[in-house]
């Protein structure tokens, strides 16, 4: 039996702020795998799916406009091999918070 996903707080984003990219580090070699950052709203509707760039033990995601378009609290998951049922695995999950700051 495998352990469930690790839940971490990655910090808040600001509406329309796409920098810096999100970088996740894993305790396993991801060479040959794909990684996706999936963001869902409170109803489970997917807001955005971002393909990552995988490099040995990291996955880097360039944040899209859709991922930071509207203030709110969402859920995110980093999923490896999401399009292959036998290999699909949720690696990390947590809150994706987008704030609308004055300024």
Overall description:
The protein is an all-beta fold and 103 residues long. Helices cover 0% and strands 46% of the residues. Strands 1, 2, 4, 5, 8 and 9 form a six-stranded mixed β-sheet that branches. Strands 3-7-6 form a three-stranded antiparallel β-sheet, with no helix packed on it. The termini are far apart.
Keywords for this structure?
0% helix; 46% strand
Helix-strand blueprint:
Layout: E1 6-7, E2 13-14, E3 22-25, E4 35-40, E5 46-51, E6 53-55, E7 58-61, E8 72-80, E9 89-99
Parallel strand pairs: 1-9, 2-9
Antiparallel strand pairs: 3-7, 4-5, 4-8, 6-7, 8-9
Task: Summarize this entry quickly.
The chain contains no helices and nine strands.
Ends distance: 49 Å
Kindly name the structural category. Answer: mainly beta
Low-pLDDT parts are none
- Give the CATH H-level superfamily: Immunoglobulins
């Amino acid at each position: 039996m495998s352990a469930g996903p690790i839940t971490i707080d990655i910090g808040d984003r600001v509406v329309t702020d796409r920098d810096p990219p999100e970088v996740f580090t894993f305790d396993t070699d991801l060479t040959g795998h794909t990684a996706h950052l999936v963001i869902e709203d409170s109803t489970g509707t997917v807001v955005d799916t971002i393909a990552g760039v995988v490099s040995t033990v990291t996955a880097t995601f360039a944040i899209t406009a859709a991922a930071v378009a509207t203030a709110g609290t969402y859920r995110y998951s980093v999923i490896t091999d999401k399009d292959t049922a036998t290999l699909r695995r949720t690696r990390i999950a947590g809150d994706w918070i987008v704030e609308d700051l004055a300024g």
